[in-house]
Amino acid sequence: MKFALALMLILISALINTSNGSDLEIIRSIGASWREQAGIIVELKTDCTNFEDEHYQKLGQLTSLKSLSISGKNLSDHQLEMLSGLTELESILINGSELTDEGYRHFKAFQKLKTLSLFHPSRNCEDFTGSGLAYLKDLPRLERLTFAGATAGDEAFAAVGKIAQLKEFRQWHNWETPNAIKHLVGLKQLESLQMGQRLPRWGTSSAPSFDDETLEVIAQIKSLKRLTFQEARLSAAGLLQLQSLPELEQVKLSLIDISKSDVETIKAEMPNVKVDWTPLTETEDEATLKKKLKI
């Protein structure tokens, strides 16, 4: 009996080592970095700028992965589908892609996904308006979403508003209008929101997407506990609208044009809320708010 048990353990160990060795060969062939846990590869980071289909096919064989981070601009719809075997994934970060709205349906394969970060997604892609984000509503465990640097706007916000299970949403440098925020009011489980400013479309001028009027809408999302605001011109009067949020615990202000006296007023009027404020410098105001964001 003891001999049989020992033999079984040896066979299992050999199988794991063989599998792990095969995985390492794949990782080296695609030039990735990785992290192991208990001898199993669980996290991978790679630059896919020069990837061809064969590289994504190899990547799709690393079925033990729980976290995947890829950068580059050539991830297409059918290449994302090649990764559908990575069903253990809990976290995905993609910096740059060529996914269309329909391509987002392939995320349904990742039913254990909890965190999805999308940076510079499908920029200037005619077949991406952001509406495809609505496919993410079919991921029951998805709680955290980042959407930043996209040439997409209100349609993306409307799609995010359908992801009812979201607890955290972070967004900045997209093409949304001031009305986009209204699509998030129906997110009844949202606890954390990070709001940044829209990027102006090339050669055009547009109203800021984030200002005191935005705060009036945010104050309607009663489940919010943590707020991070950046790149806007705000006032005490605007921020005090957040007093109607019963669960609010923290407000962070970064690259915000607001006076010290206004911040002191907010702290005095909202004593149970932790207010973290980093004063805006003249250089930051000129370079970021005026020149880059044109507000």
Model description:
This protein has 295 residues and is of the alpha/beta class. It has 2 domains: 164 residues, Ribonuclease Inhibitor (Leucine-rich repeat, LRR (right-handed beta-alpha superhelix)); 105 residues, no CATH class. Helix content is 27%, strand content 21%. The protein is built from 8 helices and 11 strands. It has an 11-stranded mixed β-sheet with strand order 1-2-3-4-5-6-7-8-9-10-11. Strand 2, helix 2 and strand 3 form a beta-alpha-beta unit. The longest helix has 29 residues.
What attributes characterize this protein structure?
295 residues; alpha/beta; Leucine-rich repeat, LRR (right-handed beta-alpha superhelix); 2 domains; 8 helices; 11 strands; 27% helix; disordered N terminus
Helix content: 25-40%
CATH superfamily membership of the largest domain, which one?
A: Ribonuclease Inhibitor
Spatial ordering of strands, largest sheet: 1-2-3-4-5-6-7-8-9-10-11
Low-confidence stretches: 2-19
Biggest pleated sheet = 11 strands, mixed
Radius of gyration: 22 Å
End-to-end Cα distance, whole Å, is 76 Å
| N-to-C SSE string, H for helix and E for strand | HEEHEHEEEHEEHEHEHEH
Strand content: 15-25%
- Count of helices? 8
Number of domains: 2
CATH first level of the largest domain? Alpha Beta
Shape: globular
Average pLDDT level: 92
